Amino acid sequence: MVDIMEYSKNGSIEIIVGPMYAGKSEELIRRINRAKIADLKVLAFKPRIDKRYSKDCIDSHNGKQFPCVAVENTEEMMSVINNENFDVLAIDEVQFFGEEVIEVCQELADRGKRIICSGLDMDFRGEPFEVVPKIMAIAEQVIKLTAICMVCKTPATRTQRLVNGQPAKYSDPIILVGALESYEARCRNCHQVIK
Ligand code: ADP
Ligand code: ZN
Asked: CATH number of 4-146: 3.40.50.300, 3.30.70.20, 3.40.30.10, 3.40.50.720?
């Protein structure tokens, strides 16, 4: 994967997208490591599901990690950003932040920072995932990765949600109490959403 933004002297936005298991976090960590080798200061964030602000890690399913700050929202992210000097801002799981994250990326890129986001471009229904398509539109570089379809072994662009082993329904709530849930990568043909 060519890191064209490494050659840019201007601020910029890169976004790494694709389904679960596509290697988005792996690619984000690779770009962060290269930036660090180039003596750039990197600040990394991910959304925090519970309320506490804490030190955490960007985790790839292949076991690679990079330390980050887990924040509840962009306000918390900005309070860290405002107290630090940095060159590169990395945000993993960007789909879980609200609309304000778009403005944060734009403003910091306008101020000369390199922004690298990573996130799901589609939800389990195969529909555009909240802020991600909007960041894709304003980014200098979009890196769209595929996983391997767990049914037919071709490149997978979608995330299959399974509830008790069966394809989830379109109307299923995001949190299903008491159900056994799992996700797998699937291609367009094998991806199923029960209407
Ligand atoms: P993402 O951030 O896109 O969910 P990760 O970087 O966490 O992806 O994980 C990528 C790793 O997941 C791959 O290097 C591979 O070892 C593993 N993996 C597990 N299942 C699959 C799959 N179906 N297709 C591709 N890689 C997979
Ligand atoms: Zn398939």
From this structure: 3.40.50.300
